[in-house]
Every structure is written in C-alpha cells, then in structure tokens.
Amino acid sequence: MGFSEEVRGAAQTIRRAEAVSVISHIDADGISSEAIVRTAVARAGVPVSSHFVRQLEPLTMKAVPEDDSLKVFVDLGAGQQNLLEERGLSPDEVLILDHHVAQPCGIEYQQVNGVPHGHTRLSAAGVAYFVAKALDEENVDLAKIAIVGNVGDMMARETLGLVGPAAEIVADGVEHGSVRVVRRDLNCYGTSTRPVHVCLSYNDDPRIPGITNDTPGALRFLKKLLGYELKGPGGRWLVWEELDLPVRTKITSALVQQLLANGEGVERVFADSYLFPDEPARSPLRNASEYATLLNACGRWAKPGIGSKICCGDRGDAYREAEYMLNNHRSIIRELLQYILDTGVTELSHLQYLHIGDRYPDTIVGIGAGMALGKLNWRKPILIMCTLPEDHTLTKVSMRTNEWSVRRGVDLQAALNAASAEFGGGGGGHPIAAGAFIPHEAEGVFVSRVNDLLRDQLA
Ligand code: C5P
User: What stretches of 162-195 show up as alpha helix (H) in DSSP?
Assistant: First the structure.
C-alpha cells in the first residue's frame, strides 16, 4: 500500500469510529500532532479525548483508556506494537500515525508512516496533517501546526528547509495565508525574539570565530560592519525579522566572508524559515522553531495540554501559562548548562560524558547537553546520564552532537539503540540527538560501549 492509500485508509477508520482516544508524546511534534488529530476528529463530529505520555512503555500503558474508543497513537506506537498486543488491543481499535521505525509484532495494526515509503523527513505532525486533510480539505488551516511539529523534530535541520511531503504542507500553509516562507534566510535560532547580536552569538551551526559563543564579539562585528547599533524606537534591540533586506544581506555576506577567510563551508549560513504572519511580531509564536520551543517547554514540564491549547488558538490563560513555562524552562536550562560547564565532563576517545544525578528532570537534560556541546569540545558527542527520581534502578541517557559530526558518519540513534539493547534497555531518536534508558548498574560499561560504537561509525 502506498503512503496516500494509508492516509485515505486512516481517514476512513476515523470517520467510522464512535469515539476516538488520542495517545501522544509530550514533545513539540507529539503536541502538535495531537492538536491536529483532535481538531480534525472533532470537526468530523466524532467525540475525542487526549492522553499524553513521556514514552510508550509498560508503565505508561495505563494512560491508554480501557474502553471501546478507537485508539489513535501519534508520534509513538510504531516501535511499541508489542505493548499494544500485550494489552490485548485488537487491530480494529488501533490506528498508528508515526514516523519512527516500526517494530512489527504478531498483529498487523493499521499504520500511516512515511518512513517505509522513503519519506524520512516527515514528522508525526506531518503524517497527522495529511490524514486531517483527507478527512476534510478545510483542515488546511492546520498546516501551520504541522510545520511547527516538523521543524520541532528537526526535519528541516540537515536539509536547511522542509523537503518532500513536508514541503507540500508548507505550500498549503502559504496558500492558506497563515504561513510565510523566507527562502535562504539566516540559519539561526531566535530570529523573531532575540536581539540580532545575541541570536548570532548563540548559533554554532555554522561556528564563526569571534561571533559564536561571544556576544560582545557579535555586537562589535555588527557595529563595525554597519557603523551603527541595531536599535529601534526607545532604544530596544531589533530582532532579525525586523531588519530590512539590504541590512540582512550585508550581514549574511559578511558572515560568508568570515567563514571563507577561515576556509570553512558557507552553505549552512542560510536556511528556509517559516513565519506565521497572524501571530504578533516579536512573540515566540512568530516562527516555527521558536513556537516549537514553547511547546517543548510545556511538554517537558508536564503541561503538554497547555501546549495543545496554544496550537488550537488559545491566546488567553493557556498562553500566559505557556509564556511563564517558557521563561522558567529557559532559566532552568541556563542553570543546568552552568552546572555541566562547572562540573566538567570526562573525555574518552570518541565522546565526552557526565553524570548529573537527579538534580534536573530527565526531560530537559538532553537540551542542556546540546547547549553545553557548543561550549565544550564540540568535535566529540556529549553523553549525559541522570537518575530517575521515581526509579533509582534506571538511568536515563541523553546524547547530542552536531551536523559536523553527523556529516562524518556519527549516528547517535544507532549507537544508543544498539548499546542499550545489549544491557536490556531501550533507546532511539535521531543521528544528531538520541536518548536511552539503561539499568543503573550498567552505566560504566555502557559508556565505554557507546564510545566503541562511535569509533566504529567513524572508521
Ligand atoms: O530525552 P532526549 O531529549 O535526550 O531524547 C532525544 C531523542 O531520543 C528524542 O527524539 C526521544 O524521543 C528519543 N528517545 C528514544 N528513546 C528513549 C529516550 C529518548 O527514542 N528511551
């Protein structure tokens, strides 16, 4: 069966359902997928409820309701079909909309997944969007949320823009008027909310000497280049999105020159960005990557439902709560980053690692690891372990690397998946960012095993 047939089949299954329970993941892609499915199902007149889980594993299976509803698993389920079977779920009460590699089981559950069709850069929110559109063409207004999910799950990162079926979603959003694409914009996070010099200095893809990790350096660079400071009315710093095209071009050309002078490639200076003109300027909802961070802040601090309300248009209480969570999320991540840098990492031949105990929730450790990497030895992937307060026999592992390493053959997902399986744990994710759970007593050997696997990948 082709991808389009899978999509149409899923829409039919939903139309026939008496009631739907959506079970989704707490990250930006999971939250946006849930919002898309819930909205589309409700618009089709079918009663719908939602349940979020951190991972689908034996302990969290209790979130799956024991009733006659159609269980729609989004952004999870493909890799955990054995759990659905063990729970006794029959094929006619399950629909999986996912983008993770499927692990088949005895029962063949209905599934829509781009991966087996070669659509490897389409996240669950993208899959959910196609099903929503098959339910009703009017659901094109959900393209914006699907773009947030795709960007949040790093589907645009390697290719410097959304490609394949995800690019079709972008075209729908543009036609609908709720999405604006800036082709070959500055490839930098925070272009709608951060002062330009801060935005540039926080960016390490590409790394630019004298600018990356050097906010005063970035400010000097801009002042020297332009002859003035990028300030607006009342003396507030301008953000990238507010700059006129000639100013932007002048800055990107200078960045290109800087990289060329250092013998570096320049292609990663630019990437497509996705703006939402119906959101207020300078707000975290104004572009896809910052919107995704806000959703992640909600999910990782146990309020995925708030993120979902934002996706569905709530700009009142839910938005105020989400903004509070975003600020809190940022300040705790800054603290975590400082903790990692102050404590220091141990370097092995092919990775650097640290154990941070149970000081920070495991849901944010990976984010801290990613930020720390830019300030440590960025050539070696970073592995951070933490203890789960609810279960001291288990250790959560988060790994992060960068495009530079991935281009050289590093695949963290493959390494963590293989190494954790050897110790009876489980892991997954992406080449650039992956996680795993392992038994506490295996920590030492596990780290050295991952180091060996990374060495083999680079051989
Ligand atoms: O938790 P963390 O942010 O480090 O996770 C990074 C990536 O690894 C995410 O895509 C997450 O879904 C995935 N992961 C996984 N299995 C785990 C832990 C994380 O697939 N046991």
Answer: 165-176
